[in-house]
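Below: protein 1.
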Amino acid sequence: MLKTVQQALFSTGLQNPTFTKEGNEQGADYETRSYRAARWASTTLSGMHLDAALSGGFRRLFSYIQGNNHNKVKVAMTAPVTCRVDPGAGPACESHFTVSFFLPEECQDNPPAPSDPDVFVENRKEFTAYVRTYSGFSNEKMKREELLKLLESLQRDGAPHVEQPFYAAGYDSPFKLTNRRNEVWVLKRDLLP
């Protein structure tokens, strides 16, 4: 019980996906990470607002890890919660969002099948991402500002990247008040997951 309360309040003890850092000669405003192949519980949504998609997707996936699966088993919470954003074709077009929870190591080989038809197990291939980390209670405006800063840094450094899709990642419970960790990820060109 105490462990669960600590995880909820301080986001401690949560499993994270495995990655290795690549050297960054350019500077410290982002880092380059190679993530190993892994399974994630995911759900897709369409809409105009990233934060609304994150909220709706989170609820679906939280239900899955709380036992809304064919095995009726609880799955440990992990971090980060990611949201892949495939922007719409124009300013008034819906974007497509894929919200995901990393499945803990004990579920990687045999994840419980989702009961909700809108939830699926995604097999992410190995990929490399440029990552910009920032703190605070993130919102849609902050995510976009941090993404633009990361894209400017990548252009400055001539780093081979794709501008879309991009990812937003959050590591903390809404109850954690300080030392919050948020990230935006831009994929290295030629290695789309």
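Below: protein 2.
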Amino acid sequence: MSDSKFWDKVHAVAAKATWAYLATANGAQPKVRVVHPACEGERVWVATGRASAKARHIGKNPKVELFYQIGADMVHLTVTGKAKFVEDFAEKKRIWNGKVFDYDLAQFWPGGPESKDFGLMLITPDRVELTSLPEMTTGKPPEVWRAPRK
């Protein structure tokens, strides 16, 4: 399967999920939280408070994993990669105004993209895995995408 077809499939699966689970690390202790991510191309965005525990963890260790489980077929989408907070105002404004998220960010940051607490987290995937419970029970291996090595 081509990269573009794989990512089309990822976007379709992710669009069916409202929530995903983001794993960060606090030292040696993993922490998992519910987030409402948005996909754009081969990038995943999470809006969160800039002073949140997630932000503190990522400041010390950028490795994250994002897990979605969708619907009765129990489709599993796992994104493994590195997260960073975007500080570039033009990019924050582009994401805000571009309606990349399917909810109104102003509900949480009424000051708009200029809000000091508006944190825009970019997850750059190293690996993405897509499977489902029915596929797992038949022994079908998951579909896996890996970022090109640099």
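The first strand starts at residue 20 and ends at 26.
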